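Shape is hard to put into words, and the shape of a protein is harder than most. The fold becomes a row of whole numbers, each drawn from a learned catalogue of backbone shapes. The outcome of that step, for a single protein, is printed below.
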Amino acid sequence: MNIIQVCPYDLSIPGGVQTHITHLSNQLVKKNHRVMVVAPSLKKSGFGRKFDCEVNYVTDSKRIGIWGTSIDITRMDKDERKIFRKTMEDFNPDVIHFHTIWNPFMPTQILNMAPKSVKKVATFHDTPPDFGIGKYIGSNLMKLGVRYYFPKIDEIISVSKTQSAAMGMNDENSPDNFRIIPNGIDATVERSDSSEKENVFRLIFIGRFEERKGLKDILEIYKNLKQNHTNRKIELKVLGNGPLMGMAKKYVVDHSLEDISFYPNTSDEEKSEYLGQSSLLVAPSLYGESFGIVLLEGMAMGVKVVGYGNSGYLNLGREYGIENFPTPGDKDGLYKIIEKHMTDPRSTDHLIRKGFEIAEKHDWKNITKQIEQVYLRKQ
């Protein structure tokens, strides 16, 4: 099949949707499909993802903040639409697979340009905040989006029950062309030797530096760990970038925190290397998570994971061990869990095996097979 993957986000910026599209596209190529990824132009020309297929950068994007996170706004002008129409005609797609199709405006433009004969598939990745005005406005906008987009799409995929519930979908009211297929992970990654971690307790945070990711919470918890365990070597690696970078670095200086390193621009290989060297992945995201791909990344590397029990993370957390996921915002609860992992690691060693089991079920080979079946499904 000839398959177009439509990404609404800048591929040079770390993100779960970008990672999803990268691995899915490469797996489809391995299965002898012809794939093209369509995305906005890269903002960071020196940073890119490794694709085994063609990537077509069709227009510029502008990143804006909303409800403690950020999105890319994209819109093809008249000339860009003309060029893309010719590109699409030459590629002759059998399937166009949209990701977060309602992210304005480029995916909708492509939807409207797509020939009727082409199968249109959409994966929905996003969820609104769990509280406040963002929850009210976001959930209502998503339900309006469902009414507009669902009739125009041949096959609908949600990455989790959390995400599908945000759209108002459940077992009783979901259409026949709706299904849940979770995010995937490369479960075959090379794992590090845990013996390297014995003398140092290494924490790692991976995520965009924005309010909802709980960056300030992990910094405060790290400060307390350093103060309360002066006889223990503790380190923290912080991978990511974003609007709270200034706040984070000021917090480090104000509290004279040592053994903390920031990595604003890491490749996938570097991220895997730092993750594999870690004792514990901490994911203190407060809200707005649909699944928890970062948790799978840790599990696949044989790294124990903890975090806040937002509804998205609990899709994995319930199976992994819900005691590792306190209520979002419960810094004392998360501190105690991290402290237990540090002071009594043998009591949590079973989580390494559990993590491997969960990661294996979500290996991209299995997930791609499910998505491929959606592409081939007769209507």
